């Protein structure tokens, strides 16, 4: 307590603008990606003559390790909530909302979080009852079905594909796969990822999608990344052939660009993320619950970030542009006169994931301060909450 008071007094003296010493955490909303899952496609055999490692679960399911990692993150966040005096012990029913998309991996992630962050408390994970449909709040599709709009999106995606230069990435991948000995080459004559064309796939009611090398490359690199995070022996991660950070970077570029082409869209992202952003703003308007976690997908984080117009940022020590288990954390802080917003990207580093490092206030996950283009922040990363609320055009 004495230490806290001294720190508090020092902070008052040195800080300009917002007096951060007198700020109190008032509300938190997290938009989270699910944790480590099995690869999304279970038909990767045709891309290589080499045997793929075996996974215990079918495609796209949260793994046991994924649940463990989410629990570690949950524990850290509950420590932080307690430290900031927002939630101590078991919260009341109305104080928290944990809401997941209907996919098994998102529900299981939310459950793992709750079991650890609110252990032995009566906190229920909410989700649509019908698990056979993708929850419309999280569904990353284009809603405006006008031909003009669809054409605009198609054009932007094609322009992004045209600007891509993944030559080195595809070459590296082809070498690791020995693609010239794979079925895809022998029977489908796709032997060179640098010659085949990536095409835009836009269908009403479906996610903006691509086919060709960008789709294939992303599916394969995703399988490598997940096996690395899962903690498989290195000889089972891309058959032991990724040996340098430069190789990882080349391969990860394919995942980054897949996300960039499909969801980082000027007009499209505002439409795609509309229902989710509307849902988020309702919670801020209601000033309740105190703590919310929404569990969705990288496509949700990507389209929300683009739609709300964040300034560019870099997430270090990560392969993925929207890291597995990563959390976009909107925090409302108040003092006696004002309300402020601070946004951080909270995510585990590659080594924290692979080694399942225990996280705590003294060994935290990575935290990157983010800024919105239209909510001017001070040197501590706070902007006026009222300015943030004005960005609600949904
Ligand atoms: C599969 O399950 C077994 C037993 O639970 C576990 O020891 C092993 O690590 C799991 N393998 C993978 C790849 O998850
Ligand atoms: C737990 O919460 C549910 C509502 O979500 C309520 O129906 C139930 O009575 C609660 N159980 C306990 C033990 O408090
Ligand atoms: C759909 O997009 C078209 C073309 O950009 C636009 O004119 C129209 O207003 C949009 N409709 C809705 C409901 O937003
Ligand atoms: C793509 O990048 C490589 C280097 O990585 C370069 O040699 C090549 O000229 C580039 N291709 C185009 C079309 O810009
Ligand atoms: C995207 O397209 C690929 C290749 O055509 C297909 O296999 C995949 O299922 C599609 N994904 C989605 C989410 O629509
Ligand atoms: C998103 O697209 C913009 C250009 O429209 C680009 O400047 C930015 O780097 C892209 N972001 C990512 C993460 O790819």
TrEMBL record:
PANTHER family: ACID PHOSPHATASE-RELATED (PTHR11567), GLUCOSE-1-PHOSPHATASE (PTHR11567:SF135)
Ranges in a coiled coil: none
CDD domains: HP_HAP_like (cd07061)
Native source organism of the sequence: Trichoplusia ni (Cabbage looper)
GO molecular function: acid phosphatase activity; sugar-phosphatase activity
Designated name of the protein: Uncharacterized protein LOC113498848
NAD among keywords: no
Highest taxon, organism lineage: Eukaryota
Keywords on record: Signal
Cleavable signal peptide: 1-17
Catalysed reactions listed for this entry: a phosphate monoester + H2O = an alcohol + phosphate
A matching Pfam family: His_Phos_2
UniProt family annotation: Belongs to the histidine acid phosphatase family.
């Amino acid at each position: 307590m004495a230490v806290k008071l001294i720190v508090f007094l020092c902070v008052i003296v040195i800080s300009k603008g917002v007096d951060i010493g007198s700020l109190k955490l008032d509300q938190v909303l997290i938009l989270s990606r699910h944790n480590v899952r099995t690869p999304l496609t279970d038909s990767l055999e045709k891309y290589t003559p080499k045997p793929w490692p075996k996974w215990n679960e079918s495609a796209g399911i949260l793994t046991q390790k994924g649940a463990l990692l989410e629990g570690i993150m949950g524990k850290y966040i509950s420590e932080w909530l307690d430290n900031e005096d927002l939630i101590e012990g078991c919260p009341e029913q109305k104080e928290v909302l944990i809401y997941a998309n209907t996919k098994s991996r998102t529900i299981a992630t939310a459950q793992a979080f709750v079991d650890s962050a609110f252990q032995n408390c009566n906190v229920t994970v909410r989700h649509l009852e019908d698990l056979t449909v993708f929850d419309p709040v999280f569904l990353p599709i284009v809603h405006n079905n006008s031909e003009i709009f669809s054409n605009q999106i198609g054009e932007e995606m094609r322009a992004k594909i045209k600007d891509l230069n993944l030559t080195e990435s595809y070459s590296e991948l082809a070498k690791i796969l020995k693609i010239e000995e794979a079925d895809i080459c022998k029977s489908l004559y796709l032997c060179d990822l640098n010659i085949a064309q990536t095409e835009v796939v836009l269908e009403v009611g479906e996610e903006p999608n691509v086919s060709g090398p960008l789709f294939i490359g992303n599916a394969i690199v995703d399988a490598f990344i997940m096996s690395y995070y899962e903690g498989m022996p290195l000889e089972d991660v891309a058959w032991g052939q990724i040996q340098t950070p430069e190789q990882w970077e080349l391969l990860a570029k394919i995942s980054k660009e897949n996300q960039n082409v499909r969801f980082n869209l000027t007009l499209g992202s505002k439409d795609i993320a509309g229902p989710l952003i509307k849902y988020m703003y309702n919670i801020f308007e209601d000033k309740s619950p105190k703590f919310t976690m929404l569990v969705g997908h990288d496509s949700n984080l990507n389209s929300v970030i683009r739609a709300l117009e964040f300034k560019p940022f870099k997430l270090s020590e990560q392969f993925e542009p929207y890291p597995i288990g990563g959390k976009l954390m909107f925090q409302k802080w108040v003092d006696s006169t004002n309300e402020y917003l601070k946004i951080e990207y909270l995510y585990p580093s590659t080594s924290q994931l692979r080694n399942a490092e225990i996280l705590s206030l003294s060994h935290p996950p990575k935290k990157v301060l983010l800024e919105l283009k239209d909510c001017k922040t001070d040197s501590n990363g706070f902007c006026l909450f009222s300015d943030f609320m004005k960005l609600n055009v949904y």
